Structures are given as structure tokens and as C-alpha cells.
Amino acid sequence: MEGFYRNIATTKAALTITASATNIWPMSDATTPQAPSAPADAERRAPAAFYSPETYRTEESIGYLMRRIVTAVGQSVENRMCEPGSPTYPQWVPLYKLHVGAATTVAELARACELDTGAMTRLLDRLEAKGLCRRVRSLEDRRVVNIELTDEGRAAAKEVPYVLSRVQNEHLAGFSTEEWEQLKGYLRRILDNAQALAARGDKND
Asked: Which residue ranges make up each domain of the chain?
């Protein structure tokens, strides 16, 4: 289940970047289609009975399907954006967060990217080595480390919303605007359930 939660977090991060960058489809003056409403809280939190050990098939698993989608989208983005020596797909996330002002310190960036500080430090090491950002000790509080994009980092980050929009539009070919809204609603409900389970610390006995 830990891998499932990590996939959920990765999906959320990718969708968050795209949503903050640009609308994938411009909406008309008509009312925006509403995502399907969730059941009452008690009913929603009751486990479903869609899967059973006797009939379980991996290719029908929502975790398996979402992981394949995330992998495919990430690979497409990397193919579009990444030349030898340039950032990988996971490295574009903090670059864009810094570009839009979602974080200014290492701790804030780790929270924004849903990474622990150790993983964020290693990621920043790689970005610094590529000349895309630099860490600067705060003059007001020496315990705080600020992160600044270099000119190269800002130029790279500006490309993110264009590529993410194009790649995700391609993966949503054939969907109507209403289906797109419904899909996001369903994904958010799964995410709500996953976060509630994580908050409760549910584990197998």
C-alpha cells in the first residue's frame, strides 16, 4: 500500500502543476459540468466490495492502471523536455514550484512537492549541479536555507506548463469536457479515501 500512496502523491503533484499553469481546455460561457457528487461521509468511508481474492486480476487494479498512466505521462513529458544533461521529469516539479512562488525554502519546497527533506536535499544537489538553482543561507535566520532559480532554471521552468498541457491533452484524446470533469472528480474521491486511510494509519494485522 505504501507504493500506492506514493503513486497517488505523484499523480497529485503532476495535476497540481498543470492546474496552476494553465487550463487544459478553455471553458465556454455555459455552466462548467460538475463532477459526480460523493456519497455521504459514512457511506463513502465504508470499504467497497469491487475486488475479491478469488477473482482478482492485476490489470483491473486501479493502482496498476494509475501507475501505468503516471508512468506513461511522465515518460512523454521527459521525452519532450529532456535533452542529455537536462532535468528529469521529477526534477521539473520543484523547478516549477519555485518559479510560481509556491516555495522559497528547502522545507517549504519539500512540503510542496510532498517529499521528505532528505529526498529534497538530494534532488536539489542534482539541480544545483546542473546550474538550475542555488541555495542561499538566510541573512535574517541562519538556520533557514532559501532556494533561488538561476536564469537557466527560470527559462527551463517556463516550459513546464506548455509541455504538461500538451502531453495530458494527448492522453485525454477522445474525452469530452464533461468526462474530463467527472474523471477528476473520481480521482479526487480516491485521493480523499487514500488520505483518510493514511491519516488513520491503517495497517494489515
From this structure: 2-21+39-200
